[in-house]
Design brief:
Radius of gyration: 18 Å
Number of domains: 1
CATH superfamily: P-loop containing nucleotide triphosphate hydrolases
Bound molecules: adenosine-5'-diphosphate
Distance between the termini: 45 Å
Strand content: 25-35%
Order of helices and strands: HEEEHEEHEHHHEHEHEE
Largest sheet: 6 strands, mixed
Helix content: 25-40%
Length: 241
């Protein structure tokens, strides 16, 4: 019973996950047996040097890529056994992605960029409501070129959260931003975690971002070196840049 309760509180768990890109002499072992449990509703930061496997794990948990071996579970369902169409449905209905470069459509307004998602996802909120959550309701009709980098990233976050994702994956979300816009973006992520209850996983090589996480997973050389629970989380405003 105790085990069952524990399992039902997990967003993800993995067992001995490996990933090898390429073959033969060109093969790169990106993950070397990753076993981890991610509780629902937490903000988790994956920290480590470039090339240590963080994005690879994020992409596998986000259903963008498949592991070479091992198992991954999303809320007790075996993600690693999903068919391609099950993975597509999983991404569409449960997962939001935010990348370092915002990937907005330049010919669409902020609102239209968000609507690209709200029109296909089930349980989506209104595009304007999503823009309101990131503090950009009054910029709904602006094109990406009329917005600053931080504002564009907030539109990308609005697009990702509009479907009310169970999980939000962020890969270097503040990597291209200066300190004050970076903090504003982290504040938005903190609000999403609190208000929508989404589990958030953030890949970064910036140790400062880790200070606002519930849990920090330290990566090195394709594996987990250490997992540290943060007893004293900082707010986005308290983070030094
Ligand atoms: P991180 O996110 O920690 O920077 P990655 O997960 O992106 O690390 O990469 C881990 C390793 O896998 C690196 O050596 C990287 O070069 C390699 N890698 C990542 N994606 C690919 C790919 N599509 N093809 C070949 N090698 C890759």
């Amino acid at each position: 019973m105790v085990t069952e309760n524990k399992v039902s509180t997990l967003a993800f768990s993995t067992q001995n996950l490996t990933k090898i890109y390429g073959e033969g002499s060109a093969a790169v072992q990106a993950l070397r047996g990753v076993t981890i449990e991610i509780p629902k509703g937490e903000m988790v930061v994956l920290l480590g040097p470039s090339g240590s496997g963080k994005s690879t794990l994020l992409n596998i948990l986000g259903g963008l890529d498949r592991a070479s071996s091992g198992k991954a579970y999303f809320e007790q369902r075996e993600l690693s056994a999903f068919t391609d169409s099950e993975l597509t449905r999983y991404r569409r209905n449960h997962v939001g992605f935010v990348f370092q470069f915002y990937n907005l459509m330049p010919s669409l307004t902020a609102k239209e960029n968000v609507e690209l998602v709200t029109e296909i996802a089930t349980n989506a909120m209104d595009a304007e409501e999503a823009l309101g959550l990131v503090g950009l309701k009054n910029r709904a009709d602006h094109f990406p070129s009329q917005l600053s980098g931080g504002e564009q990233q907030r539109v990308a976050i609005a697009r990702a959260i509009a479907k009310q994702p169970t999980v939000l994956f962020c890969d270097e979300p503040t990597g291209a931003l200066d300190s004050s816009t970076g903090r504003a973006v982290l504040r938005v992520l903190q609000n999403v975690n609190k208000e929508l209850g989404s589990t958030i996983m953030i890949v970064t090589h910036a140790a400062n971002t880790a200070k606002m996480a519930d849990r920090v997973v330290h990566f090195a050389d394709g594996g987990i070196r250490e997992i540290v629970q943060n007893c004293h989380k900082l707010s986005a405003e308290e983070i030094e840049w």
